[in-house]
Amino acid sequence: QGATPERTWVLKTDEDGFTALDKSLLVSGDEFYYASNGDPTIPVGTVTMQETKAPEGYLLNNEIFVVKVKPEGNDEIL
User: Where are the beta strands (DSSP E) in the chain?
Assistant: First the structure.
């Protein structure tokens, strides 16, 4: 219930349960945003994250995480 996202990504986790903006972990979605040095980056603005599939042996976390990414770097978890 809000704005339509400009871009979306579905990422899988690595063997240790972590994910990152890495093409090898991208399951589906749009092109990443890139910093001037060529590294993938999270855009300034409001970003939501949600687990859509739990690892085997774990329960799905239904919480939606909302982060306001600011250009100064002092991000705010909403």
Answer: 9-11, 26-29, 33-34, 40-41, 45-50, 64-69, 76-77
